[in-house]
Fold:
Amino acid sequence: MATKNQTLGEFIIENQAEFQYSSGELSRLINSIRLAAKMVNHEVNKAGLVDITGSAGNVNTQGEDQQKLDVFANNTFIKTLTNREIVCGIASEENDDYIIIEGQRCDNKNKYVVLIDPLDGSSNIDVNVSVGTIFSIYRRVTPVGTPVQMEDFLQPGNMQVAAGYIIYGTSTMLVYTTGHGVNGFTLNPALGTYYLSHPNMTFPETGRIYSVNEGNYNHFPQGVKDYIKYCQKEEEDRPYTSRYIGSLVSDIHRNIIKGGIYMYPKSSVANNGKLRLLYECNPMAFIAEQAGGAASNGYERIMNLKPSELHERVPFFCGNKEMVEKVEEYIQKAD
Ligand code: P6P
Structure:
């Protein structure tokens, strides 16, 4: 049950029963993410004022130049989740390997792992464009009481127990699902409280926005090129509108509200695309499906893919169901 302007805390308590795995552990999990998001939001909002937007001088797992806010966000989420002994393991875009969390609760009670992209779209920070945090939560598959193992993280997306994102935009929002719909909470920075501003988020019946980096057009597979031409054709409800922020969370958040498809295809320069299956595609796919949409790699449901390594990349098409089905049709017809 979602009543507008309910606080996040009230909402979690009222809907705790839906999280059939545990009493109270979801609250602790979402509350720790809520706290970390407030801390990151504070830093992101003043990024232009202090020398924190510049590069940290390091390079992360992906070979990408690590922005200082990336490092701050990564450390903040890891510390918050660790201090509260809420989860037994964390995998992050910023860390080569997963982190094993020891602790009393991890020895006998706790059974969750979290995968996180702590600050997605961070290259937008120094141009003041919105960025986001993406998280994905699983119940571990190895015995409780032993250290987590790689198989706890390499689960298909259809095993997620919760997933969500925080968007640090014109306002800061926490959007998440536990498999019972998608709800969006907006932070009132003056009070430090999140209020239910977007209950039961669902894609509109039809979508007319397509989001893709058309600079890579010449490198796309033929089917993707054909679909982009379909979006631009003067007929029926087209041409569609092209909108691409270059921040996954922002593009998908807008497309859930207004209707549209986000695409990051494979190409001749990136043979599996750019986005990571575990902590970008799977959580956004869970959200999209719970909002009545779909997410595919062009051939099959993203959440059915069996991961083989932590940082693997997959082609990603996510949005209104009929738009995803249409691009799949073009991709498969061109093969
Ligand atoms: P490109 C940000 O780096 C990101 O992972 C997503 O947030 C975003 O949608 C995409 O990459 C942008 O990539 O190659 O279009 O700049």
